[in-house]
Amino acid sequence: MKLQVAEVVLIRMQFHQAPGSKIRPALVLMDPGDEDFVAAPITSQPRASEFDLAVADWQPAGLNVPSMVRVHKLTVLSKADIVRRLGVCSSADQEALAKLLCRVFCPA
């Protein structure tokens, strides 16, 4: 399966300190072409950090409610845990994401 950057997927997230999992949305940031991909979790919780990005066009992205991308909580996930694809972030949201990623990882 090939994922595209800015695609929103629904994924089974395994708990780290307890058995079980929860199905959550995530934003694809990179697909290196193997069985894993790099993603940022998406939450419906209000902004908690300067590194949270509000998804302006959340409905076309396939999200059910207004949501935030947690840019500072990047993770590597297995494609085998994807439940389904939800949508793709708009160009405006992709541009805002690129600016925030650059601010976080490429400080001047």
Q: Could you say what the CATH topology is called?
A: SH3 type barrels
Binned strand content: 35-45%
Mean pLDDT over all positions: 93
**Can you count the beta strands?**
7
- 3D shape: globular
* The top level CATH class name: Mainly Beta
The tally of helices reads 1
Spans of at least 5 consecutive residues whose pLDDT stays below 50 are none
The figure for the number of domains is 1
**Main sheet properties:** 7 strands, antiparallel
Given helix and strand content, the structural type is mainly beta
Which value, in Å, is the CA radius of gyration? 13 Å
End-to-end separation in angstroms reads: 36 Å
Tell me what the CATH architecture is: Roll
Q: How much helix, percentage-wise, in residues?
A: 10-25%
Order of helices and strands: EEEEEEEH
How would you summarize what this structure contains?
The chain has one helix at residues 91-105, and strands at 7-14, 21-30, 36-43, 52-54, 68-70, 75-78, 82-88.
Protein architecture, described:
With 108 residues, the protein is mainly beta. The chain has one domain: SH3 type barrels (Roll). The protein is built from one helix and seven strands, in the order βββββββα. Strands 1, 2, 3, 4, 5, 6 and 7 form a seven-stranded antiparallel sheet that branches. A hairpin with a 5-residue loop joins β2 (21-30) and β3 (36-43). The longest helix is centred in the C-terminal third of the chain and has 15 residues, at 91-105. The chain is globular and about 40 Å long. The termini are far apart. The model has no long low-confidence stretch (mean pLDDT 93).
